[in-house]
Design goal:
Strand order of the largest sheet: 3-2-1-7-8-10-9
Bound molecules: 2'-O-acetyl adenosine-5-diphosphoribose
Oligomer: single chain
Strand content: 15-25%
GO cellular component, one term: cytoplasm
Order of helices and strands: HEHHHHHEHEEEEHEHEEEH
Main location: cytoplasm
Cofactor: Zn(2+)
Distance between the termini: 26 Å
CATH topology of the largest domain: Rossmann fold
Keywords: Cytoplasm, Metal-binding, NAD, Transferase, Zinc
Radius of gyration: 19 Å
CATH class of the largest domain: Alpha Beta
CATH architecture of the largest domain: 3-Layer(aba) Sandwich
Helix content: 25-40%
Number of domains: 2
Pfam families: SIR2 (PF02146)
């Protein structure tokens, strides 16, 4: 586990005009939300996310997929942002320009105070018509599941990107441009297995940024402009913010 932050990384952050950050499920793990690589538990233990988070699964068994998301939505709404989320919201106030890009669909960055996080994979607390795309803030849970769209009757679906679906183009473009333009890129709590998010750190590095990867499955090492820190985000990020806040 990282004992102390590399001084050259803190210096790079202090000097940075633009910082871009990519977060993954590891940042929400300390809020009690399982990561994707954690085994599913309870009645969902027999399913892998890939078997439920796809248009095919929704077509094959819309009720099962709707109920899986309803369970996860309830868990997310019952969870609280952790110290890592709060530190990232504070970091926004310490650097001139910060772009927060997240693969997480739990909405915890916004609840922690981050302004306008780029939600590459959508937001599980939002629901839309599977045909018209209209968003609905409320829906009946006591009738047919998935609830039918009040306007056209098609099933409502969670506003998340499923396997095989395209990411929202405008959000992805903003994330790509932020990675190209930043001075420092932090990749936090992600296994870096799912494209196109996984390419963002490489885009930043190839455009001259200093890149730090923070998660629990890296071997600690630092090279010029490249840092791998084995640490819990809820522990390391408050330390990073505290150091930056010092004059
Ligand atoms: P993963 O579950 O693939 O990876 C979680 C990462 O977080 C791992 O690298 C862990 O080491 C790390 N980790 C766990 N606890 C941590 C902690 N307390 N502090 C820091 N790191 C920690 O989750 P993602 O990389 O986010 O896509 O998965 C990416 C995408 O794959 C998801 O957005 C989802 C999934 O398929 C879609 O649903 C489209």
């Amino acid at each position: 586990m990282t004992s102390s932050l590399p001084t050259s990384l803190v210096a790079a952050l202090r000097a940075a005009r633009r910082v871009a950050i990519l977060t993954g499920a590891g940042v929400s793990a300390e809020s009690g939300i399982p990561t994707f690589r954690d085994a599913q538990s309870g009645l969902w233990a027999t399913y892998r996310p890939e078997e439920l988070a796809s248009p095919e699964a929704f077509r094959r068994n819309p009720r099962l997929v709707w109920e899986w998301y309803a369970m996860r939505r309830a868990a997310v709404l019952a969870a609280e942002p952790n110290a890592g989320h709060v530190a990232l919201a504070e970091l926004e106030r310490l650097v001139p320009t910060l772009t927060l890009i997240t693969q997480n669909v739990d909405g915890l960055h916004a609840r922690a105070g981050s302004r306008d996080p780029l939600e590459l994979h959508g937001n599980i607390t939002k629901v839309r018509c599977s045909v018209e795309g209209t968003f609905y803030a409320t829906w009946a849970e006591d009738g047919d599941l998935p609830p039918p769209c009040p306007a056209c009757g098609a099933p409502l679906r969670p506003h998340v990107v499923w396997f095989g679906e395209q990411l929202p183009t405008d959000v992805l473009q903003q994330a790509w441009h932020a990675a190209e333009a930043c001075d420092v890129f932090l990749s936090i709590g992600t296994s870096g297995l799912v494209e196109p998010a996984a390419s963002l750190p490489r885009v930043a590095y190839s455009h001259g940024a200093t890149v730090a990867t923070i998660n629990l499955d890296v071997r600690e090492r630092s090279e010029e402009r490249l840092f791998y820190l084995h640490a819990r985000s809820g522990v390391l990020l408050p330390q990073l913010v505290a150091q930056l806040a010092r004059a």
